[in-house]
Amino acid sequence: MTRDSVSSALPARVGAAPAGMARSRPPRAGLPWLAGFTVMVCVFLVTPIAVVLLSSLTAAEYVTFPPQGLSLRWYVAVLQNEEFLGSLMVSLRVAAISSLIACVVGVSAAIGLVRLRFPGRGLVEGLFLSPLMIPGIVLGVAILQFYARSGLISSTASLIAGHLAITIPYVTRLAIGSLVGFDERLELAAQNLGASPLQAFRRITLPILFPAIAGAFAFAFIVSFEDVNLSLFLSSPQATTFPVRIYTYMSQESSPIISAASSLLVLIVLVVAIVIDRLVGLASHGQKPPRLPADAAAPGGGKP
User: Fold this and answer.
1) Measuring CA to CA, which residue among 157, 160, 179 is closest to residue 220?
2) Strands, DSSP E only, in 119-207?
3) By the 8 A CB rule, do 64 and 129 touch?
């Protein structure tokens, strides 16, 4: 068979259109409408935040949009207000500690749920993830009644314990998603080379799961830091979170200081997301870990 005959046969084998007929293309009539709808949704979501950010820069004594003059006086007023500053410290402390504890508990629970097979495993997994399906107000009322019946007083510790109910499910869900695609042969290869199970977990599993754990910490921190529904029931005069303080001020007066405090809340959440993305790369969270060749993971495969 000559090269010319092979070339002449290729169009028929790859399903090319006969000569004289234009090549058909997938219909794209709906793409402009889809793009326009996507832009409208983005504008709808971003516009309220942009209005708050711009109105916080006003130099006037009242909330205006567009702002009358540009000034940072209301941001200075927030940082000089002892109530706002104290509530900001409470929120940062509660979010950091609850996210750290949630990572320890959630990752441990995810490892047990993925790698162990025991009766009632589905029920245990449902219990860990059930707070995601319960409205925050209902969860806040339930935890408040539990504290009242147990004699627990409202404090920063009780806020942290309450926030664990909404942060652990996020960490557990993200950790389970990462462990499902994890190649356990990496741990077996390390153990074949002399590492103990704990050393294999600390030096192989943990570094591979670190981006997922860091992403889970960021999500848990943001969820805890901006929570209002649960914190509204658990806050006390000694421990009031920053979002609850903003909500309380909004119910009493209308001032640009509310816009500045809300803008600080948005900026802190944005900075946390950017820092975590720069450090560990949130985009790499869903990537599968590297896999070993079959012969390398076999018992004795890594030995000469």
Assistant:
1) 160
2) none
3) no
Q: Contact 258/56 with Cβ under 8 angstroms? A: no
User: Where is 278: in which H helix or E strand?
Assistant: helix 256-280
Residue at token pair 């909404």 = 166
Q: Which residues contact 232 (CB under 8 A, 6 or more apart)?
A: 140, 244, 247
- The CA-atom distances, in angstroms, between 89 and each of 79, 86, 223, 238, 245 are 11, 5, 16, 12, 12
Per-state percent for the chain, helix, strand, coil, to nearest 5:
70, 0, 30
Say if CB 223 and CB 170 are below 8 A apart. Answer: yes
Please tell me the total number of residues recorded for the chain in this structure. 304
pLDDT, mean over the chain:
79
Per-residue pLDDT at 138 exceeds 60: yes
Apex 244 CA angle, 240 and 245, nearest 5:
75
Task: Say how far residue 165 (Cα) sits from the centre of its chain.
Answer: 15
Q: Which residues have CB under 8 Å from 32's CB, separation 6+?
A: none
End-to-end CA distance of the chain: 49
Q: Which helix (H) or strand (E) holds 75?
A: helix 73-80
In contact, 156 and 94? CB cutoff 8 Å = yes
Residues 6+ apart with CB under 8 A from 297: 185, 186, 188, 189
Model confidence over 36-45: pLDDT tens digits? 899 999 999 9
List 239's β-bridge partners, or say none: 236
* CA 87 – CA 198 distance, rounded (Å): 41
In the numeric block, which tokens belong to residue 182?
A: 């994890």
Q: What tokens appear for 249 in the block?
A: 């001020």
